[in-house]
Specification:
By secondary structure, the chain is mainly alpha-helical. The protein has 11 helices and no strands. The two termini are 47 Å apart.
């Protein structure tokens, strides 16, 4: 009898302490942030992304020219103090169009990855914590999506939905749902039999409460890392779709669209394709460097 009372008191204390903010957990996050600040490549990537985000936020307010303004008397102008990156076949300032195109790329990337994160993480939590039948149904559906190459699946979805930036967001978001579902499920399977989960069940906590209060905080680290890496690939996917004429439609500027337009005039005006390509390169590199830094900072196995 005394043993049963002691066990009940122990479980109560564990669940009660799990529901409250934990000092050690906060310390772990602070330590991870300090390690991230000491990661030079991650800080370089963050600086690059800060510049790109500033371009996307302020957009037309900081462009020296109208990004869609045409001047046929100044076509194919070389890079100069007047036009830092030259002009295209319509006399439009390439630098202004790259600045405005940053907003399109970031908008597509963030919205698509947000959709993939919410839906994929939710499905992964359900699959890892629910019954075997639910797990099989969800993960076999994810396997079907994951079996297709990402860009081909995005093109197939857009072929059904039609052209446009909105449909590009939906297509890219669907493509990356299986990635987040697999990561979340794997993390849940690793902790579902831990003592604090068993204690919460013994005290009568519902499944939703356990998932949101106890399981989700423990799977955030790999999800955060995957978000940064998926943002890089989402921007590449948007550029590819726009390159094929499925994403952003003219005259709105998009890095992928500008790269496609510059391909036709590469020998005559190589900078038309070089500068949009460099914008994509540095943005993707920034997200990858930041993602690597977050992985090193949040993964206990990589701590030094």
């Amino acid at each position: 009898m005394l043993a049963a009372v002691s066990l009940s008191d122990s479980l109560s204390k564990r669940v009660a302490s799990a529901d409250q903010p934990l000092g050690p957990a906060n310390t772990l996050w602070r330590d991870a942030f300090r390690r991230l600040l000491r990661h030079r490549l991650a800080m370089f990537g963050a600086l690059v992304l800060l510049v790109v985000v500033a371009m996307g936020v302020f957009g037309p307010a900081i462009t020296p020219y109208d990004p869609n303004g045409m001047d046929f008397s100044d076509r194919f102008a070389n890079p100069s103090l007047e036009h830092w990156m030259g002009t295209d076949d319509f006399g439009r300032d390439i630098f202004s169009r790259i600045i405005v195109g940053a907003r399109v790329s970031l908008q597509v990337g963030f919205i698509a990855v947000s959709v993939a994160t919410v839906v994929g993480t939710g499905l992964g939590l359900m699959a890892g914590y629910s019954t075997r039948i639910t797990d099989e149904v969800i993960m076999r559906a994810m396997d079907v999506l994951y079996a297709f190459p990402a860009i081909l699946l995005a093109i197939a979805i857009m072929a059904a939905l039609g052209k446009g930036i909105g449909n590009a967001m939906i297509a890219i978001g669907i493509v990356y749902i299986p990635i987040f579902a697999r990561i979340a499920r794997g993390a849940v399977l690793g902790i579902r039999n831990e003592e604090f989960i068993i204690a919460a069940k013994a005290m009568g906590a519902g499944d939703i409460r356990i998932l949101l209060t106890h399981v989700l905080p423990n799977v955030l680290s790999p999800i955060i890392v995957e978000i940064t890496l998926s943002l890089a690939f989402a921007i590449l996917a948007e550029a590819a779709l726009s390159f094929f004429g499925l994403g952003t439609q003219p005259p709105d500027p998009s890095w992928g669209r500008m790269l496609s337009e510059g391909r036709a005039f590469f020998r005559q005006s190589g900078w038309m394709g070089v500068f949009p390509g460099l914008a994509i390169f540095f943005t993707v590199m920034g997200f990858n460097f930041l993602g690597d830094g977050l992985r090193d900072a949040l993964d206990p196995k990589l701590r030094r």
